[in-house]
């Protein structure tokens, strides 16, 4: 018996870890999507900052198709050409010398944290295993990464958390200085804390983290899963802030929707994850790396990166005006095309309601906590698509104001 593919069937057959929207998208092109009923949506969500080049970019489709007709998978028993090429391309455009490929941001961060612990214990003894991270950060859903993130809602109910994690508020330099010591193997920072409100780190905080890591022989890890690959108008966020980490993690936009992630490491630290210490069956898959190589070539272009900054100005000025007109937003913050619209006191705690109302009017947006609506559209979204999306957001705001 063939069942109708629907939200009802989803709720019957899927493990209930998610609560997806009522609609089911079935097609996408550029910054537009269509659901099962043919209803069109402007996509300001970007698959949570994943679809950096929009939906079904022709160059990515071509790269995937060509590789699909050649070689799908060999495992890491063998090297493959797309992975080697992509690793070289990433090291050519970044501070890093070595790359470990995996499939998701959680896996990339897991590799980074394991590397940090192994490095710390090897160089500083059995007590040098502490990781200093920010409260209300997000680094993935494995047991290690939720422990590092410091959000009890993600870690409670799974037994004892990983030991040796210290949490400090983002941009609190005094707290950071008090937490980092000779026992610290790594300081990990999201250049913009995305899931908890689109909160940018301050350059002074990142610089002090760099200095403390140098002083105490710890690794500085930047989680660029959400901010990397052009999202801020520079290829990587560390370039925007002018602070260079020792390790950087990438996912989301590196594959533009095809599962791919990477942990980038300086030469002097890479050897601490030697043969047999870590691995991934699918990491560096030829299909994923072929897409990643094409995506990197397209994103790392001056017109694309300059365009991100132009689109930021266009969106933020319009969002501020719209928020004031309808009393919806009290602030608009963020960098590049990672934007957080802070809800006004009247709408505090109702980000989910705003997201749902926008969807009803043909606009896909995200939330970042209960009080912030998050936008992470394609880096190459067209001006008319921005304007149409803003028109739909205004209609949604007007209906919310009247409700």
From TrEMBL:
<dbReference type="Pfam" id="PF00202">
    <property type="entry name" value="Aminotran_3"/>
</dbReference>
<feature type="binding site">
    <location>
        <position position="138"/>
    </location>
    <ligand>
        <name>pyridoxal 5'-phosphate</name>
    </ligand>
</feature>
<keyword id="KW-0032">Aminotransferase</keyword>
<dbReference type="InterPro" id="IPR049704">
    <property type="entry name" value="Aminotrans_3_PPA_site"/>
</dbReference>
<feature type="binding site">
    <location>
        <begin position="105"/>
        <end position="106"/>
    </location>
    <ligand>
        <name>pyridoxal 5'-phosphate</name>
    </ligand>
</feature>
<dbReference type="InterPro" id="IPR017652">
    <property type="entry name" value="Ac/SucOrn_transaminase_bac"/>
</dbReference>
<feature type="modified residue" description="N6-(pyridoxal phosphate)lysine">
    <location>
        <position position="252"/>
    </location>
</feature>
<feature type="binding site">
    <location>
        <position position="280"/>
    </location>
    <ligand>
        <name>N(2)-acetyl-L-ornithine</name>
    </ligand>
</feature>
<feature type="binding site">
    <location>
        <begin position="223"/>
        <end position="226"/>
    </location>
    <ligand>
        <name>pyridoxal 5'-phosphate</name>
    </ligand>
</feature>
<dbReference type="InterPro" id="IPR015421">
    <property type="entry name" value="PyrdxlP-dep_Trfase_major"/>
</dbReference>
<dbReference type="InterPro" id="IPR015422">
    <property type="entry name" value="PyrdxlP-dep_Trfase_small"/>
</dbReference>
<keyword id="KW-0963">Cytoplasm</keyword>
<feature type="binding site">
    <location>
        <position position="281"/>
    </location>
    <ligand>
        <name>pyridoxal 5'-phosphate</name>
    </ligand>
</feature>
<dbReference type="InterPro" id="IPR004636">
    <property type="entry name" value="AcOrn/SuccOrn_fam"/>
</dbReference>
<feature type="binding site">
    <location>
        <position position="141"/>
    </location>
    <ligand>
        <name>N(2)-acetyl-L-ornithine</name>
    </ligand>
</feature>
<dbReference type="GO" id="GO:0009016">
    <property type="term" value="F:succinyldiaminopimelate transaminase activity"/>
</dbReference>
<comment type="similarity">
    <text>Belongs to the class-III pyridoxal-phosphate-dependent aminotransferase family. ArgD subfamily.</text>
</comment>
<comment type="pathway">
    <text>Amino-acid biosynthesis; L-arginine biosynthesis; N(2)-acetyl-L-ornithine from L-glutamate: step 4/4.</text>
</comment>
<dbReference type="InterPro" id="IPR005814">
    <property type="entry name" value="Aminotrans_3"/>
</dbReference>
<protein>
    <recommendedName>
        <fullName>Acetylornithine aminotransferase</fullName>
        <ecNumber>2.6.1.11</ecNumber>
    </recommendedName>
</protein>
<comment type="subunit">
    <text>Homodimer.</text>
</comment>
<keyword id="KW-0028">Amino-acid biosynthesis</keyword>
<keyword id="KW-0663">Pyridoxal phosphate</keyword>
<keyword id="KW-0808">Transferase</keyword>
<keyword id="KW-0055">Arginine biosynthesis</keyword>
<dbReference type="InterPro" id="IPR015424">
    <property type="entry name" value="PyrdxlP-dep_Trfase"/>
</dbReference>
<dbReference type="InterPro" id="IPR050103">
    <property type="entry name" value="Class-III_PLP-dep_AT"/>
</dbReference>
């Amino acid at each position: 018996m063939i069942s109708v593919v629907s939200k009802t069937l989803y709720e019957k057959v899927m493990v209930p870890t998610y609560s997806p929207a009522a609609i089911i998208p079935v097609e996408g092109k550029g910054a537009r999507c269509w659901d099962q009923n043919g209803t069109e949506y402007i996509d300001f969500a970007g698959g949570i900052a994943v679809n950096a080049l929009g939906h079904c970019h022709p160059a990515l489709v071509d790269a995937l198709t060509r590789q699909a007709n050649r070689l799908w998978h060999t495992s890491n028993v063998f090297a493959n050409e797309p992975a080697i090429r992509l690793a070289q391309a990433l090291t050519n455009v970044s501070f890093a010398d070595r790359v470990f490929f995996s499939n998701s941001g959680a896996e990339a961060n897991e590799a980074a944290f394991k590397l940090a612990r192994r490095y710390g214990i090897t160089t500083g003894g059995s007590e040098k295993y502490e990781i200093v991270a920010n409260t209300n950060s997000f680094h993935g859903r494995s047991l290690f990464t939720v422990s590092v993130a410091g959000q009890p809602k993600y870690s409670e109910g799974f037994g004892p958390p990983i030991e040796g994690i210290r949490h400090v508020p983002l941009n609190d330099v005094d707290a950071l200085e008090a937490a980092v010591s000779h026992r610290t193997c790594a300081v990990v920072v999201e250049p913009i804390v995305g899931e908890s409100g689109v909160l940018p780190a301050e350059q002074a905080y990142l610089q002090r983290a760099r200095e403390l890591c140098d002083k105490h022989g710890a690794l500085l890890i930047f989680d660029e899963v959400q901010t990397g690959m052009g999202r801020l108008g520079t290829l990587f966020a560390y370039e925007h802030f002018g602070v260079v980490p020792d390790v950087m993690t990438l996912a989301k936009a590196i594959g533009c929707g095809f599962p791919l992630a990477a942990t980038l490491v300086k030469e002097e630290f890479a050897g601490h994850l030697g043969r047999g210490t870590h691995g991934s069956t699918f990491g560096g898959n030829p299909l994923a790396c072929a897409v990643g190589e094409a995506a990197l070539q397209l994103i790392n272009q001056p017109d694309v990166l300059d365009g991100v900054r132009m689109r930021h100005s266009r969106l933020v000025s319009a969002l501020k005006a719209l928020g004031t007109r309808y009393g919806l937003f009290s602030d608009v913050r963020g960098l590049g095309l990672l934007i957080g619209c802070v809800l006004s006191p009247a709408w505090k705690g109702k980000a989910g309601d705003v997201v749902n109302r926008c969807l009803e009017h043909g606009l896909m947006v995200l939330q970042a906590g209960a009080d912030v609506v998050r936008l992470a559209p394609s880096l190459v979204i067209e001006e008319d698509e921005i304007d149409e999306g803003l028109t739909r957001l205004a209609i949604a705001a007007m209906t919310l104001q009247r409700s």
